[in-house]
C-alpha cells in the first residue's frame, strides 16, 4: 500500500445492495450495519484523506470524521470534496467543522469567485484544478504534493466512475448488503457513461472476502489490476 510518485494510493469503499445500488430511489444510502460503519471508520483513521463527490455531500450531508473507533476518535483525515462549481453549502456539516478538520474543496475555473472566497473565509482550502470540471489527476497530484499518501474515496457513483475510468484507483472494497432495492434511477456503485464492451472494463483481482458477524453482509476486497502505476 504505497503512494505512487505522482499520486496517492487510492482506495474506493462503498456499501451496496445485492442488485448493485448504493442508495435507494428515495436517496436513502444507510445500507450497512453498525459493524460495517466501525470498519469504515477504522479505515478512515488509517488514511490521510477521505474524498467524496459533491452530490454525496448535497444528499447525505456527511461529516466524514472518525467516530466509532475507540482510542482513535479524533484522528481525522483531511476531507476532500470534488465540487466543480463550489456548490457545497456553508451550513453543511463539512463546512461547519472545517476549522477543526482540514477540508479541501476542489473546484474548476468555472466556480463562482464569491462562493470560493466565502468557503476560504470559513477556513476551507479551495483549490482550482480543471477548466469546466475537476481534473482528478491534477487533484491527486496536488494532494500528493501536500504529503497525502493514502486516499479513501467514499463515493458516489459518478466520482467512482471517473476515477476508475482514468485508472486512478488501486483498491476497491465493497460491502454487499443482503437486500434488493431495485429502481432504475437508484444510484449504482459505478455510474458515468460506462464502458461499451466487457473487455474494456476495469479488471479486478479478488484479494479477500469477509463475512460480517453473521448478519449476511459480505465484504469483497479487490485490487484494481489496470490502474496507471
Ligand atoms: N452506499 C454508499 O456507500 C454510498 C457512498 C457514497 C455515496 N452514496 C450515494 O451516492 C449518491 C451520490 O452519488 P452520485 O453519483 O450522484 O454523485 P457523486 O459521485 O457523489 O458526485 C458527482 C458530482 O461530482 C462532481 N464532479 C466534479 N468533477 C468530477 C469528475 N471529474 N468526475 C465525477 N464527478 C465530478 C460533479 O458535480 P459538479 O459538476 O457540480 O462538480 C458530479 O455530478 C447519493 O445518493 C449518496 O447517498 C452511497
Question: What's the topology here?
Answer:
Elements: E1 9-17, H1 34-44, E2 49-53, H2 54-60, E3 78-82, H3 93-96, E4 103-107, H4 113-122, E5 125-128, H5 136-145, E6 150-153, H6 157-165, E7 171-177, E8 204-212, E9 217-224
Parallel strand pairs: 1-6, 1-7, 2-3, 2-6, 3-4, 4-5
Antiparallel strand pairs: 7-9, 8-9
This protein binds NADP nicotinamide-adenine-dinucleotide phosphate.
Describe the structure.
With 229 residues, the chain is an alpha/beta fold. It has one domain (9-224): Dihydrofolate Reductase, subunit A. The chain contains 6 helices and 9 strands; from the N terminus they run βαβαβαβαβαβαβββ. The protein has helices spanning 34-44, 54-60, 93-96, 113-122, 136-145, 157-165; strands at 9-17, 49-53, 78-82, 103-107, 125-128, 150-153, 171-177, 204-212, 217-224. The chain has a 9-stranded mixed beta sheet. The model has no long low-confidence stretch (mean pLDDT 95). Residues 14-15, 22-23, 27, 29, 31, 52-56, 59-60, 82-85, 87, 133-134, 136, 154-159, 162, 187, 191 line the site of NADP nicotinamide-adenine-dinucleotide phosphate.
Number of helices: 6
Tell me about the largest β-sheet: 9 strands, mixed
- Strand order, main sheet: write it out: 5-4-3-2-6-1-7-9-8
* Share of residues in strands: 15-25%
Fold-level CATH name? Dihydrofolate Reductase, subunit A
The string of secondary-structure elements, in order, is: EHEHEHEHEHEHEEE
Roughly what percent helix?
A: 10-25%
Radius of gyration: 17 Å
Classify the secondary structure makeup into a structural class: alpha/beta
Query: Cα distance, first to last residue?
Result: 12 Å
Bound molecules: NADP nicotinamide-adenine-dinucleotide phosphate
CATH architecture designation:
3-Layer(aba) Sandwich
Overall geometry comes to globular
Regions with pLDDT < 50 over 5+ consecutive residues? Answer: none
Average pLDDT number: 95
Mind telling me the CATH class?
A: Alpha Beta
Question: What is the count of β-strands?
Answer: 9
